[in-house]
Amino acid sequence: MSASYPLVAVYADESCLGNGKAGATPGGAGALVEYAARDGSVRRFDLWLSEPDTTNNRMALRSVSDTLDAISRKGNTLSIRFTTDSRYIVDGMTQWVHNWIKRGWRRKEGAVENVELWQDAVTSLRSHEIEWRWVRGHAGHAQNEYANHLATRAAAAQDGSNGLVPSAFDEWIAAQKAGSTAAPDPFPDPSAFRPARPIE
Q1: Taking the domains of the chain in order of start, what are their residue ranges?
Q2: What integer is the mean pLDDT of 101-130?
Q3: Which stretches within the chain are classed as H helix?
Q4: Which top CATH class is 7-190?
Q5: Rounded-to-integer distance, Cα 17 and Cα 174, Å
Q6: CA quadruple 120, 67, 124, 198: dihedral positive or negative?
Q7: pLDDT attached to residue 19
Q8: 21, 49, 130, 131: least surrounded by Cβ within 10 Å?
Q9: Which of 21-25, 36-40, 172-176 is least confident?
Q10: How far apart are CA 12 and CA 33, in angstroms?
Q11: Are 137 and 85 in contact (CB under 8 A)?
C-alpha cells in the first residue's frame, strides 16, 4: 500500500516538569511538521503548547490533536506519518481505542483515563489516513530530539506557538554537538506508507 493523499511527516514529543511529584507539574508538547515541496526540498514548521499543571499522557494526547487540527485547517485530507516516542499514543491509537469505542468509551476495568482528550485526538484524525511510528526517546533521533526541545521549552516558558510557525530545526541541529544526534530522517517515501486500521 502507499499514501493515498499528500504525505506529511509529523514528529511529536511531550514534557512534564516534575511529573509524579507533589505540587504543580507544568507541561508542554512540541511537534515538527514536514512537507515535501515540489522541487524536492522539505518545508518544516513547528508547533508547541503548554499547560500549567498536567501529565505526560495529557501532553502526548494534545500533541496529536493540536498538531492534526493545525495541519487540517484548510479542510484537506492527508496521509500522515506520525512519529512519537510515546507507547501510550502508538498502542492507544493502533489497539486500545478500537475496543474502547465498542464499549462506549470504557475499558473492561472501568473509565478511560483522559477520555475527553482521547476523543478529541480521534476526532482530529478521522479525515486522514495515519501511520503511527514509535521511536526510542532520548536516543539521538534528530527530529524526535527537536520535538523534545520544543516540548521542554514550552513547559518551562509556559507559552505556545498558536498554530504552525516556520521551523528553527536547521538552526537547532547546526548548534548540536557533533555526534549528539543522528542525521535527520529523510522525508518518507509515499510508496512505503502503511496506514493504521481506520478508527470507526
Answers
A1: 7-190
A2: 94
A3: 56-71, 87-91, 97-102, 115-125, 142-157, 169-174
A4: alpha beta
A5: 26
A6: negative
A7: 58
A8: 21
A9: 21-25
A10: 9
A11: yes
